[in-house]
Amino acid sequence: MLKNFWYACEFSAAITTNPKQVRILNQKLVFYRNAKGQLIALQDRCPHRGAALSLGWVKDDCIHCPYHAWKFQADGKCINIPANQPGIPIPKNARVDSYPIQEKYGFIWLFYGDLPEEERPPIPPLPEFEDPSLQKIFFEYELNAHYTRTLENDMDMSHVSIIHSKSFGNGFALEQKMEDYELNVGEWEGHAKVNVRDYTKAKDLFAFVFRPLKANVKVTLGFYMPNITRLVVDFGRGKLVNFTVHVPVDDRTTITKRIQFRSFLTFPWADGIFQRAAYKVVMEDKGVVESEYPMAVPDKLSDEVHVPCDNLSLAYRKLRQKCLAMGWGMKPYQNQVDDSNGNLMPPSPEKTEWFVSAIVGDRS
């Protein structure tokens, strides 16, 4: 997993003034809104006895622990301990980590890392979100796989005629050859353009997109670091766009959250049809993706065999290597705090300072 990026981790509509637990990057966070609708993201672990703050409640724009009602403000600092007698000071380390957060494109984005604001890689563009002519739907699904594997699967064209032979891949010969494609790689992204030809038939909804013997579909596949894929299918009479976030819950779990845009059949009654079609495709991928070993893509390119049609995923792996070389890989920390579920959570710089003070004393 990588730090120093903005991670889209939840749909905006899912967060209200009621606390909600969000799992990401081997951690558990709590999200909620204050009375003005502003977002707050905190570590979901009370420093007193480890209870989940997401089981608590929000009052006066602060979150209260469900166990002993400790009151934490938006910056994570505890400002009230009901059991304390008047005059007893609140311990300095009675606080939880807080995280930078913003809303964009119907997602909540969380920055996890230590870069100053002006040096952080930007949130990628999504111009379709503001296009009123496109119908959009939001949906998600969970796979028992590492996010790097689900991401690569999402931008792999050569498996379509094999795994998806019962859905949109139906009509390709199993020995379908991949044409050379145009590849463009930027600082934190990569995109490839592929033409799909010689399509003969399709089933269900996909028959509307791929006409027998006439298909000349323009497909653009791409990724944004560290965990986003983008698919654009242009078949002349319409366009379909998938903007997909592969949320890294832990080393064995990925929650994939997707916004799908379409310029055809834009009636709301058709939304369910497109959701079911997308889910069918995911279920065709599920068994294979969950079987991949090792679970994450290897750090070394030479650990797996590559062919020319893998150039887009190779571009992703090279940018991932670049991040690892910059020290952006998330590694085990010293003085870890266990979240009681086998996940190790790094202490914040403030907590590290408190640990030192506790050991050697406050010399100020």
TrEMBL record:
Keywords: 2Fe-2S, Dioxygenase, Iron, Iron-sulfur, Metal-binding, Oxidoreductase. This is Aromatic ring-hydroxylating dioxygenase subunit alpha. One of its GO terms (molecular function) is dioxygenase activity. It holds the Pfam family VanA_C. SUPFAM superfamilies: Bet v1-like, ISP domain. InterPro entries: Cholesterol_7-desaturase, Rieske_2Fe-2S, Rieske_2Fe-2S_sf, VanA_C_cat. The keyword Oxidoreductase applies. Residues 6-110 form the Rieske domain.
